[in-house]
């Protein structure tokens, strides 16, 4: 896979390329387009070379200048998609962590089928208040965000009602390392692992654990969640990436399927969790 930031840039370049082709098809120069739009020729050049992202108004003006106003809607949608593909955490979390938790509620409530893979921490909808507090506190300290951890934890717990309410299904994979990483005190980890055992009993949840000893066809990846096989949210240290292109979604579904083949389920998965609890002593 190419890096998330480079893929976002590729999407911006695709929009810029479509705008350039539109100008060429209209048979006008960059200078003439600038005159028709009422801006500088250098701005036209920056937009065409993906140096400056166009606004919605810029795209409408460009399409009008080229005599193709009907193209504006699709181009605006593509431009917005490119802009949202790669969003830095510092932008998402600048007012604290609570609002970010709350912003995900509509998507969680409308999603019927979740595919989630976690290589580093327990998935958010399985987290206990103690575990979430320890994790979000460390994130807030690291990023220097406003201290609203208590409110963010409450919002995360509220968002997690989807595992027990409504028509939702969860296919979840975690690496065995997730069970062993110490997030919080041993007591916090014991409570969290115990909650995983109880969550596994819910009929809506399929939880697989990839053992350390499993032969790997797919290497450990960054954490990601697939919503209704239509969009993927990927989490890196620097940013949150959203993918909606069918080919990209299919790539993550393929990776999920490959990792699922070597995951432990049922009694074998419970044994891995109970071993991790015992190791806390």
Question: Can you describe what's shown?
Answer:
It is a single chain. With about 280 residues, the protein is of the alpha/beta class. The chain has 2 domains: about 80 residues, lambda repressor-like DNA-binding domains (434 Repressor (Amino-terminal Domain)), CATH 1.10.260.40; about 190 residues, Endonuclease, Chain A, CATH 3.30.870. Helix content is about 55%, strand content about 15%. The protein contains 14 helices and 7 strands. A 7-stranded mixed beta sheet has the order 1-7-6-5-2-3-4. It starts with a helix and ends with a helix.
Domains counted in the coordinates: how many? 2
Strand order of the largest sheet: 1-7-6-5-2-3-4
Q: Distance between the terminal alpha carbons, to the nearest Å?
A: 40 Å
Low-confidence spans: pLDDT under 50, at least 5 residues? none
Radius of gyration: 23 Å
Query: Which structural class is indicated by helix and strand composition?
Result: alpha/beta
- How much helicity do the residues have? 40-55%
- Count of separate DSSP helical elements: 14
Count of individual beta strands? 7
What is the helix/strand order? HHHHHEHHHEHHEHHEEEEHH
The level-1 CATH class of the largest domain = Alpha Beta
CATH topology of the largest domain: Endonuclease, Chain A
Q: Averaging pLDDT over every residue, what do you get? A: 87
Shape: elongated
> Largest sheet, described in full?
7 strands, mixed
- State which percent range the strand residues make up: 5-15%
Could you say what the CATH architecture of the largest domain is? 2-Layer Sandwich
Protein name: Helix-turn-helix transcriptional regulator
Domain HTH cro/C1-type: 18-73
Pfam family, one: DUF5753
